[in-house]
Give the backbone structure.
Amino acid sequence: MVAQTSAGALIREWRQRRRMSQLHLALEAGISQRHLSFLESGRSNPSRDMVLLLSESLSIPLRQRNRILIASGFAPGFSERDLHDPELKPAMDAVQIVLDGHAPNPAIAIDRHWTMVAANQAIAPLLEGVSNKDLLKPPVNVLRLSLHPEGLAPNIVNLSGWRAHVLERLRLLIDQSADQQLTALEKELAAYPVRKTGPDPKPGAADMIAVSLRLRLGGAELSFITTTTVFGTPLDVTLSELAIESFFPADAATAAFLRQLQSRGS
């Protein structure tokens, strides 16, 4: 993201990032195109309510809304608490309930940089094949762990397809958030060598409906589809950037294998 500090420049940058014309945004916000032009050029200064209105119309992340408010001379409008802050305890308790309730299927909670902040017990067996144990030392970046040649990558049967999916998803997040740390992560992951050990596997049944993760664990091949869960109406920056990644078995064999793992661990 280009380093620009004026509120008008930031609003213009986000409008262009969202590929909206001034007329389109003005109509969305219910203001005149002339007024918007004056705001973007700095000829007029936005009020606090105008910053929030335009930010909502542009679906700007809460962290960046605070940045625009500060650039406009106002105090941040959204708190940013630590994950261990007592005020976030009800939300974090809810996260843990979802994670535990998803067993025997794996599930993790991640922050905006894909750092794992919580997980259920079903995750641990999937990580046994990671050769570089440093990748498992906190803070664990889930995407780095997934694609690193000494991480899960050697055990991902459909590595080429999964890698393309991960990088595309990461690029979409960068486009949505303008996060420089994610940009650096995408560059790092794209540079990892991809070692082909054989022909690309035939698509499984799950690949007909979603991109699946096919993971080799011991002598078994597990197949997963994933979902992402976020809080619906967060007013805290940290909470708005928290997500739960849930892995669902894509076939009966994977479901049975996970149940067996759970019974052995209980």
Remarks:
- DSSP finds eleven helices and five strands in the chain.
- The radius of gyration is 22 Å.
- The beta strands are 107-110, 116-119, 213-217, 220-230, 243-249.
